[in-house]
Specification:
By secondary structure, the chain is an all-beta fold. Helix content is 0%, strand content 41%. The protein has a domain of 70 residues: Rieske Iron-sulfur Protein, CATH 2.102.10.10. The chain has no helices and ten strands.
Amino acid sequence: MDTVNPPATLCRLDDLPEGEAVALDAMLPEGEESLIVLRHGDAVRAWLNICPHAGRRLDWAPGKFLISRGLLVCAAHGASFRTDDGECVGGPCRGDRLRAVALVVADGEVRLAPGG
């Protein structure tokens, strides 16, 4: 009999600071990746911590991200991404977007979405 493993828990919702981005490691189908995780109230969004411009991480120090005027800013080249959909609206990769990673919040836990 096959069993389905529940989605991996990344953290508790209460552990995420409101309006700030944090880096969390997650095991995705293609391997372990660093994620940018951002909380707004009970909603949580995540993207791969990889800038589409040069393939570098966006954090300026491990797990520390710059958010300015509602935009997530890449520390390497200053690309600016909207925090609602990850689209680059300024800098060298304008029009590209961060690769979203689907999450769910259940029982106060932030988890990878099934199949994601």
